[in-house]
Design a protein that fits this description.
The chain is α+β, with helices and mostly antiparallel strands and 154 residues long. Helices cover 27% and strands 20% of the residues.
């Protein structure tokens, strides 16, 4: 289930993720100790939580060329989608998603390997690309499935 990025893009993604931290040195220390590292949401990205199975279906619907980072926890069967920090109410009616508030802590493994059951299904690639909330909403839909026509996905 791990990310399919080339090693150079995975390293660039890890560098980008570290750039999102207030204290990159403490993040590296956590990872060196095989721990998850805390990232606060809001400034660089927001997080939307969803069930893992439905998230995997949504990943296929959206397509890898349009995805931002998606973190999975295989033990709790949850996934977190990284979304632009300033999106509006596009996801308010998507019952499968819980959009976390600004300042919420997402505990992340490094991009290069899994830690404690958490793995990047779609890792950051270093570009800063995030998933478009409209595409995510269309993929998961208000009732849990796609509600927009196939053309919405390109």
């Amino acid at each position: 289930m791990a990310t399919k990025l080339a090693p150079s893009l995975r390293q660039a993604g890890q560098d980008w993720l570290l750039s999102c931290a207030d204290d990159p040195a403490s993040i590296r220390q956590a990872w060196d100790a095989e721990n998850l590292a805390p990232f606060l949401t809001g400034l660089r990205w927001r997080a939307a939580e969803a069930p893992l199975v439905q998230s995997m279906d949504a990943i296929r619907r959206i397509g890898s060329d349009r995805l931002g980072p998606v973190l999975a926890d295989v033990t709790s069967e949850r996934a977190w989608w990284l979304l632009p920090p300033g999106f509006g109410n596009e996801l308010d009616d998507v019952r499968l998603l819980k959009v976390q508030p600004r300042g919420w802590t997402l505990r992340c493994p490094p991009v290069l390997y899994a830690v404690r059951g958490r793995v990047w299904v779609e890792g950051p690639d270093g570009s800063g690309r995030l998933t478009d909330p409209v595409l995510l909403g269309a993929a998961l839909g208000p009732g849990g499935g796609p509600r927009l026509p196939a053309e919405a996905f390109g």
